[in-house]
Amino acid sequence: MKVDSTDLKSIAYTEAGKFEETRFEKIHNVIFDSSNEASIIVAEEIAALINEKEALNQPCVLGLATGSSPIKVYEELVRMHKEEGLSFSNVVTFNLDEYYPMGKDNIQSYFYFMHEHLFNHVDILPENINIPNGMVSADDLYQYCIDYELKIKSYGGLDFQLLGIGRTGHIGFNEPGSHLNSGTRSITLDHVTRADAAPAFLGIDNVPRKAITMGIGTVKSAKRIVLLGWGLNKAKILKDTIEGEETSSVPATYLQDHDNTTFVIDSEASSELTRVKTPWLVASCHWTDILKLKAVVWLSELLSKPILKLTDKDYNDNGMSGLLTEEGTAYDLNIKMFNKLQHTITGWPGGKPNADDSHRPERANPAKKRVIIFSPHPDDDVISMGGTFDRLVEQGHEVHIAYQTSGNIAVSDEEALKFAEIICKLNPDNSEAKAIIDFLQSKTDKDIDSKALRQLKGLIRQSESLAATRYLGVKDENVHFLNLPFYETGTIKKGNLTSDDIDIVTSLIEAVKPHQIYAAGDLADPHGTHKVCLDALFEAIDVLKPKAFMNDCWVWLYRGAWHEWESYEIEMAVPMSPDQVLKKRHAIFYHQSQKDGVMFQGDDSREFWVRAEDRNRLTAKKYNDLGLADYAAIEAFKRYHF
Ligand code: F6R
After folding, report:
1. Average pLDDT of 463-486?
2. Would you name the residues annotated as active-site residues?
3. Could you tell me which residues are beta bridge partners of residue 343?
4. For ligand 1, is residue 63 a contact (CB within 6 Å)?
């Protein structure tokens, strides 16, 4: 079921397990267009429960989660408290988990997280807050966990449990292997979980190896469970959980036999579900153009046959006879879809001058375009679209690069020290450099970088970026370092987007009046920097939309370092020759602080240039497998219509 904002409430929650939409699904789930909208609905359900219990003069016992998934739900609850008088005075909370060992004052602790996002802003009684204590001694740990469990029971159990899901399929920190009846206990974290947490801890080595977690049994005893899942990163595990068999290797599948569970997910997170990915397999479809292309590409990939070789039988055998009835024969449909893909390919990303552009992705005119490439961090431009960037410059367009954030937190202390020491050697009286060295020498894990250190780190990234943009032939005055304020917290957690950020983006667009804007279209991840940068751009576009020059402005979205557009989504495919691949590699190399072991590696050990090359090669191979020409590499874009 796909919902829009008009009918959210009426259909958001139905009794679990009974009304699933397809025979594939074993857990009730609702798909929302945006995680924001969905979070507000979940917050409303929690608020209604709190009020209901209040009216009965009973405590409302909430099981709470941390992580990126529930942040917006907490933000909305805080808003309801401040603006609508929602009171938490009858609320008792039990958090799912805490790292072990972990002090309460550590900014990575879940204790800190919960206070920062919720408890410090509402009227909950401190004695009603329960979060596993990450500092309990090893000797007391066993009894401590039993007591935590008993305390939940003493309140009559959890009325409502909010969950996120880890890529291992964990709920709480119940990692693969957890038992159906497990209670609160200590657990060893999975490597994938630690890798996912690594950015927040500035490296996987700093992530604790253990945690205290409520068990599967504890969670399942809740009267109502809502699990949140946002973004492409969660798509695969959500499919396994919702459609797979119940198994300890995906602990979230245990929720299949809880009779009041709803998974609330956004469209990106739903993208692997059978009814979303291949709707023609579950019901008769309304065949839109995009769905036709999606289905044909899927069939070609499934059967490992180029599009032009697909037969009527192939379509009929795979749930697509309805499509054939609409389109005539496989022959007609194949040619139509092949041409559609063929027309996405262009070596002229800024449009080909003096050419018929009716079947080209970009307009021929004006022949020389003004272009802004927005890059969330100072390197996404070359990593994600270095080849296209190079072509745009070579083909004579006026190319501007806008680095949206300083990227300062991704520069290591060692790198910064190197530069601070060089400054001191050149000028021993430089007090800023000396202060930075002093700060670095006494810095502990808990310290946030000083302003001067952050500035130095930002400058390091600026000079790397300039080296790359000069190499690709862009004049320095066309390189804009926007240093958007939302990013400048000095920590992984960023501030909220404000009008200051949006104004900066708006002013640049207004000054350049571009015909083309390129931006990182990572719509998936709700709290990552790329998404916030994209939001800033979309808001700026909204402000500028009424201006005449915007009628002539097309926006192209590229994908960041992690995912690529699906083949059927691509609207402009820019092929690269082997030499262009090498040139792009060199441009990425200029970002030295991000080479040879980056700070935010995640669980992908490849360096950025390797990822970029692998990905561009794979896109080219996919095109070739569909029956199109065999290129060394392809960069892919999707148009954003405003
Ligand atoms: C957090 C917790 C975990 C997270 C899960 C998803 O208290 O128990 O199960 O819910 O790791 O984390 P995010 O939401 O950060 O993707």
Report:
1. 98
2. 175
3. none
4. no
